[in-house]
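Issue: ligand-bound run for 4'-phosphopantetheine - logging full I/O for the record.

Environment: standard queue, default settings, no custom constraints.

Inputs:
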Amino acid sequence: MVKAVYPGSFDPVTKGHLDIIERASKVFDRLIVAVLENPRKNALFSMEERVKMLEETTSSYGNVDVDYYQGLLVEYAENNSLAIIVKGLRAISDFEFEFQMALINKKLNRNVDTMFMMTDYKYSFISSSLVKEVASYGGDISELVPPQVYEIIINKIENLK
Ligand code: PNS
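Outputs:
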């Protein structure tokens, strides 16, 4: 059985993430979507909120589980016998940093490999940061995020005002 981990901060999950989850779930026998902290970003949603949103959007996939971890990704992968990290690439601009991350993760644990999937062109411009920015100015994010989490995101942003 080939198991993989799709890690991210998912703050919040977008249609771009979901596209990768759907396609990776067809490639691997089991896919763990793992919410991790990105120390370079301040999260809007708590870990619990991010996990819940992912659970709601992935519940129809029989071989996808959602989990979270506070620590190194390779540590999580090792603890859970996951030899493959799946990452989505949207554009060349993602490549340099993702390449660096793949190499540091390989350096930290030689048993773990990173595999990249190109995001569908329809979602290549979507990022969680842009979703939050558009929503904070009252822009329409309905086509950027899964319908199950649309209200949750709008309410969160409204409550901050
Ligand atoms: O969705 P993101 O914000 O691009 O995801 C980045 C994430 C959370 C996968 C990355 O920051 C991460 O792996 N965080 C856990 C700590 C870690 O292992 N860092 C890499 C080695 S320094």
